[in-house]
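Collaboration report, partner site 2.

Our partner group contributed sequences for two proteins of shared interest, and the home lab folded both. The records are reproduced in the order in which they were received, starting with the first partner submission.
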Amino acid sequence: MGNLVSSQQEAEITRKFATGDQAAMTLLYDTYGLLLYRAVLRLVKHPQVAELVLQESFVTMWRTFHAYNATQHSLFVWALAICRNKAAEKSYAPGYDQKAIAHV
């Protein structure tokens, strides 16, 4: 799998996150939101739950960006790992039943 965006785009998003610029969230969502949503949806199997997981994941990304290390992972890989972890937390939570989630 090749690069999803240019290194300049990732660097811009990373700089904005590092300086606390909230525009980073918009850039990250515009750049990777659909790909992340699709990955989450494959795991949780319910669109409304996937939206919730994606929202929670973006909050986590904002709060934990200080832990991101660009020398270890691309921004997408880091974001995807957070989304997958949140999806797993939701899927394995006690009482999680995909058929009963219609009211989410």
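Second partner submission, folded after the first:
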Amino acid sequence: MLQQILEKQAKLESDIGSLVDEVRAMRQSLDELVNLLKFQRTAEGQPAVQVVLPPISPELLSEILRTMRWSGEVYFPHFRTVTHVPAGTQVVFHFKLPSGYYCTCPGPLVFESDYYNPNITLEVYVDGEPITPLGALPIYPTGPIQFTYGGLWFKRVEVTIVYTNNSIRDVNISYAVDITMIRDFIFESYYKPLVEFTKERLSDMIVLGGGKQL
């Protein structure tokens, strides 16, 4: 009995030690980020020094979110679905975001088909805005078709895909993408402020270089 208690105590101490190591690693990552983004000003409020900032991109912010390990608040799933589109029809696929979550993945979206024909097309919309602005994109020539969300990488409501099959043959089209899902409060309290902070610092650097403030 005593041996079992000692073994459980040793295991608990080991688990606590691992947890402490993870917290220290997280604290170090955050300290490095803070030091990187520090920007000092003179007493007159003018920028005192220039700093080199990493380009704030959806990819970089997603990597930072990964290191914070917010279990249950941030997800990074791989999403794939197949849509059957009979000949001579149009099928609309809706990927609706769960309530309380935003999607910040930049893509790429990858489409594949079991039959390729220029009369089979697709259109993609993010919250009602097209990311295929030149119109319908043909499923042609053969092979995977991929593109990014571009400037519409931030999604609040849904992604809509319109498949139009004007060929004489039924087709199955797959859609795959790596997703970054974050809770809305994380976006408002962390993601958005970091982007705005970086924009201000870049604006300061532009002013120092003789340009206009963003």
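Feedback sent to the partner group on the second submission included the following. Residues 2-58+187-208 form one domain. The chain has two domains: 2-58+187-208, 77-179.
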